[in-house]
UniProtKB/TrEMBL annotation:
The chain crosses the membrane at residues 7-26. This is Glutaredoxin domain-containing protein. Coiled coil: none annotated. Residues 151-161 have a biased composition (Basic and acidic residues). InterPro entries: Glutaredoxin, Glutaredoxin_euk/vir, Glutaredoxin_subgr, Thioredoxin-like_sf. Keywords: Membrane, Transmembrane, Transmembrane helix. The keyword Secreted does not apply. It comes from the Eukaryota. NCBIfam families: GRX_euk (TIGR02180). PANTHER family: GLUTAREDOXIN 2 (PTHR45694:SF5). The lineage of its organism: Eukaryota, Fungi, Dikarya, Ascomycota, Pezizomycotina.
Amino acid sequence: MLSQRRLRLLVIAVVAFLFMSFYYSVRHRSSASNTNITSNANTIQGEASKIQNQKFYRSTLDAMKSKEANHAKTQEKIQNAMHAPGNSPGTGAGAGAGSDAEAQKPAIPKANEDTEEIPIAGRTKMTVPKKQDTNVNAKEAQVASEQSEEEKEREIKEKKEAEAKSELNDILKRAPVIVFSKSYCPHSKRAKNILLGHYAIKPEPFVVELDLHPLGPFLQALLGQKTGRRTVPNVLVSGKSIGGGDDIAALDQSDELASTLRSLGGKWIVEVEHLEVEKGL
């Protein structure tokens, strides 16, 4: 019988043999698998390359055919242009080619007052909108605003002048004798004192205080245009001015005021009586 030591060595040798056999078997299988994978990959790459070569070949053929077709069309256009009526062989092709070139040119916007041309890269020019000057725009807005204000003022003035004309016509109908006065004016006070205190006039003179009337300045300007007298007092008899404070005082002192009133007032003045009692005042 074998001793225990030899038996152990035998067992170890058997185990080692089995392990080595298993190891080489697995390695052989892995190598074969890698070989198959590599072969399959090469096959796939080859097929893909063939497909790509076929596509490139087809696209190349298509491009060549398209180029030949375009060339044939161009030649046909040139021939048609050369044989067209009124075109000579020397100029027909040039005209046709020129028209094609003009048709293919990109549209370039034309410069106008709102655009300008600027250089790009030192050579090419491009049309762009002009930069607006903010100062100019502000000035234009200010001028427009001032013009608008002036127009409003002119409209208001024209309206007031029209109202003053209508008001003056109404005032002249109130009485034959009209005294245009101002409440603070001493000359106006003197004229009113003579007409209303020294005389009994029927109908009684109508007094208009221009400084208290809403249309006073416009009435005074209108009186200046109609009578030539722009100051107060301004005494009108039947629409005609007989003067101011000094003129009324002079007529009173010369005893001509009553006759002047009767002459200009006509039938509209019913009575003019000189009050002797009040003469000394």
